[in-house]
C-alpha cells in the first residue's frame, strides 16, 4: 500500500470514534460525472429551500429537490416536503451506489450550490422520519468542496475534500455523535450538486 492510499480506501474510517465515515473517492469516470452533472443541473426541478428560523419562513440561495420511491412526506428544517418520483438518471445512480455499498435507499435529497458563497451550516441528519443510525450515501458532482465533521461533545474536527463523481458514506452512530457542514469558500466560483441517498422509515401520509 502506498503512503496515501487510505484516502481512497472505502474501508478506512475517517472518524476517530463514535461513528463511521467512508470515502470511496471517484466512483464515476470523468465522462459519466460530467454527464450526470449536466443532466441533473438541467432536468431537476430545483427550488429554493424553505427553512423556518426563529419562527420565520426563509428561502435559502441554495436550491434543493427531493425524490423517492413514493410520495413520502419528509420534515426537514421544520418544513415538510413531498418526494417526486425517481428520474431514469437518479435510478441509475441509486443502483450504482447500492451495488457499491451493499445498502438500500428509498429517497434522495438533492442540493445545488451555485458557487462557493453557498454552503450548509453544521447539522446532523437525524430527523424522526429517517431510519435511526441508517446509512446516508453522499454523491458529489461539479466543484470540489471541503466537507467538515465536528464531534458534538469533544469538538474534534475532521475535514475532507469531496471530488467530482465521488462517494462518501456516513453510517452507524455518526448522526448521533457528529455534526457535518459544507463551509462556504471564496475560492469556488462554479456549481456543485450533492445527492444524499437516505432511508425513510415512517411516512406522515
Ligand atoms: O452538500 C453536501 O455535501 C452535504 C449536504 C447535507 O449535509 C445534507 O443535505 O444533509
Ligand atoms: Fe447533512
From TrEMBL:
This is Alpha-ketoglutarate-dependent dioxygenase AlkB. GO terms for biological process: DNA alkylation repair. PANTHER family: ALPHA-KETOGLUTARATE-DEPENDENT DIOXYGENASE ALKB HOMOLOG 3. GO terms for molecular function: catalytic activity, acting on DNA; demethylase activity; dioxygenase activity; hydrolase activity; metal ion binding; oxidoreductase activity, acting on paired donors, with incorporation or reduction of molecular oxygen. Keywords: Dioxygenase, DNA damage, DNA repair, Iron, Magnesium, Metal-binding, Oxidoreductase. It comes from Kaistella carnis. It comes from the Bacteria. Residues 104-201 form the Fe2OG dioxygenase domain. The keyword Isomerase does not apply.
Amino acid at each position: 500500500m502506498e503512503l496515501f492510499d487510505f484516502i481512497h480506501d472505502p474501508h478506512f474510517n475517517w472518524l476517530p470514534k463514535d461513528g463511521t465515515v467512508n470515502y470511496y473517492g471517484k466512483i464515476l469516470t470523468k465522462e459519466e460525472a460530467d454527464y450526470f452533472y449536466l443532466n441533473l443541473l438541467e432536468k431537476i426541478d430545483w427550488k429554493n429551500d424553505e427553512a423556518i428560523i426563529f419562527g420565520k419562513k426563509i428561502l435559502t440561495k441554495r436550491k434543493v429537490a427531493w425524490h423517492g420511491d413514493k410520495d413520502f412526506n419528509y420534515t426537514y428544517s421544520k418544513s415538510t416536503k413531498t418526494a417526486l418520483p425517481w428520474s431514469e438518471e437518479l435510478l441509475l445512480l441509486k443502483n450504482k451506489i447500492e451495488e457499491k455499498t451493499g445498502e438500500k435507499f428509498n429517497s434522495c435529497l438533492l442540493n445545488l450550490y451555485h458557487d462557493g458563497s453557498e454552503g450548509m451550516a453544521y447539522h446532523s441528519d437525524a430527523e424522526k422520519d429517517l431510519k435511526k443510525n441508517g446509512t446516508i450515501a453522499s454523491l458529489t458532482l461539479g466543484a470540489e468542496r471541503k466537507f467538515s465533521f465536528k464531534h458534538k461533545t469533544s469538538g474534534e474536527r475532521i475535514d475532507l475534500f469531496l471530488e467530482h463523481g465521488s462517494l462518501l458514506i456516513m453510517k452507524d452512530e455518526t448522526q448521533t455523535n457528529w455534526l457535518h457542514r459544507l463551509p462556504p469558500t471564496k475560492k469556488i466560483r462554479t456549481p456543485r450538486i450533492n445527492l444524499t441517498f437516505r432511508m425513510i422509515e415512517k411516512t406522515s401520509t
